[in-house]
Specification:
Blueprint (H helix, E strand, L loop, with lengths): L9 H28 L3 E9 L10 E5 L6 E2 L16 E8 L6 E7 L8 H6 L5 E6 L9 E3 L12 E8 L4 E12 L2 E11 L9 E4 L10 E7 L9 E6 L3 E6 L7 E4 L6 E2 L6 E2 L1 E7 L6 E6 L7 E6 L9 E2 L11 E9 H11 L8 E4 L6 E5 L2 E5 L10 E5 L7 E5 L5 E6 L2 E6 L4 H6 L2 E5 L7 E5 L6 E5 L2 E5 L4 H6 L2 E4 L1
Length: 491
């Protein structure tokens, strides 16, 4: 008995043909996106923190054209400030999507400068990561918390997060160190989760766990992809576990081969002494034939030390590098992103050498007082601590020509804006309402023409003034009001 084979109708053939065209078009778009992401790299961006100072545990950026000499961006001030969790971040990682159309910064939610002890931080600390997201590398979302370690029994923390695109699962593998009890042993191990959007994560799983006989914990793992498989592997990872261990693999979630450590160079993570380092940070040089491994010399506070290798298959191929410069600020555990010319132009335009100078805004009639923010409200005070609370960048107004806006130094995505006629420090949400509320027209000082007064852009019959030391916008009708509404920008 023969089975009848149905004939295809013309509409079926047309549907199939159109479906094929759609798939080809989608493939062409995907190929174009990948090609755009592979534009030649012309520079480097380093995200880092600087230490346990008032603004040190925030996101700082530095730029380099050769990967060895670094210039601090934003005049060394933080570029992003965490307002969630512990309100501090360490160990930031820069992540770019495969198509180059999306970026993330993920970081440890930790602020030692607030008085937190290391014991509390590792045993009873935050189990969340802080995440920022951007479509252009310069305009970032508000920070958000993701509790990646919350499903790990007895988890004490979530430290030093990293992420890498995994073609095997078509998503990102996010990995970090958590201190928890496993098989009767409490120590740091590397856990991982998968995500496609850095919002929804799979439950945490163990990624690296050394034998129980090794009591030393493991932290600060970072992976670099080597598409040419130089040295025999596509991926290499470096970890701090008493030594700086180097491993190789051809799959992010596959088996890894230990290649050695850096003890032969007198470098360790504490076991064996010598130059004691942490936070290994990979950096592919833009020549495509060599790789840098930066090591944070935290024990001596000397900042990063670079090594270089053209063949990662053996730790014996690493060499120390001389003639490097880290810039004006200390660089602590971070990550480096290679930049295309377009990305570099955007970054430098936003935070490069043309950055507006840092200023203070002095009151005319109480000249020992300066405009400052305190708990996101604005006022004039003397002897401000920390000093950055009274430091501003007077930038071109968000609302347009002829106006100025006051951008915070230590909350660089926040501006002074009026709300209900009261001045507040708020994050720029990109709306036209915010831009208008945060814009002021400078005019000759109402109390002295050699000083300056600031008229509200969208309520032009009101001026910026202090009243009982709090800042607001009001109509000015008398001599006292004119004095309250007069200021001077000083360096």
């Amino acid at each position: 008995m023969r089975l009848a084979v149905p004939r295809r109708r013309p509409t079926t053939l047309l549907t199939a043909f159109l479906a094929t065209l759609t798939l080809l078009a989608a493939s062409a778009v995907a190929t174009a996106e990948r090609a755009a992401a592979l534009d030649p790299f012309t520079g480097y961006l380093l995200a880092h923190f600087t230490g346990e100072s008032s603004n040190g545990e925030q996101i700082h950026l530095a730029h380099s054209t050769d990967g060895l000499s670094w210039t601090d961006l934003n005049n060394g001030a933080p570029v992003l400030v965490s307002t969630v969790g512990t309100r501090g971040v360490r160990d930031p990682a820069l992540v770019r999507s495969p198509s180059g159309d999306r970026y993330w910064i993920i970081a440890t939610d930790l602020r030692i400068a607030s008085g937190t002890s290391w014991g509390d931080a590792s045993g009873r600390g935050s189990t969340s990561l802080v995440v920022w997201e951007s479509s252009n590398l310069v305009d970032w979302s508000a920070p958000r918390l993701v509790n990646v370690a919350g499903t790990i029994p007895g988890a004490g923390n979530a430290w030093a997060p990293e992420a890498i695109w995994n073609p095997g699962t078509n998503d990102y593998v996010v990995y970090w160190a958590t201190n928890a009890n496993r098989d009767g042993v409490t120590k740091h191990r590397i856990y991982y989760s998968r995500t496609s959007d850095f919002r929804t994560f799979t439950p945490a799983q163990v990624y690296i766990d050394r034998p129980a006989s090794r009591s030393q914990g493991i932290i600060d793992t970072q992976i670099v992809e080597v598409p040419s498989s130089a040295g025999g592997y596509r991926y290499y990872r470096a970890s701090a576990e008493g030594q700086i261990t180097i491993e190789g693999s051809n799959s992010v979630l596959g088996s890894w081969t230990t290649l050695g450590d850096l003890s032969h160079m007198g470098i360790s993570n504490g076991t064996g002494g010598g130059t004691v380092v942490e936070g290994p940070m990979w950096m592919p040089f833009n020549n495509g034939t060599s790789w840098g491994l930066w090591l944070d010399q935290y024990a001596t506070g000397r900042g990063y030390l670079p090594l270089r290798s053209s063949n990662l298959g053996s730790t014996r191929n690493f060499q120390t590098v001389s003639g490097y410069s880290l810039g004006a600020t200390k660089k602590r555990h971070g990550s480096i992103l290679q930049l295309t010319a377009a990305e570099q132009s955007r970054v430098l335009s936003r935070w490069g050498g043309s950055t507006t100078a840092i200023s203070r805004i002095q009151s005319y009639n109480v000249q020992d007082r300066y405009v400052r923010h305190a708990n996101y409200t604005a006022r004039v005070d003397a002897d401000v601590t920390p000093a950055q609370d009274a430091q501003w960048r007077v930038v071109p107004g968000l609302a347009g020509s002829g106006t100025v806006s006051f951008r915070s130094v230590n909350f660089p995505d926040h501006y002074l804006r009026h709300y209900g006629y009261v001045l507040r420090l708020e994050r720029n949400d990109g709306s036209s309402t915010f831009a208008a509320d945060a814009a002021f027209t400078p005019v000759a000082g109402l109390a002295s023409s050699s000083w300056t007064s600031y008229r509200s852009y969208n309520v032009p019959d009101r001026y910026l003034r202090h009243s009982s030391y709090a800042l607001r916008i009001d109509p000015i009708t008398d001599a006292g009001g004119r004095a309250d509404a007069t200021f001077r920008v000083v360096r």
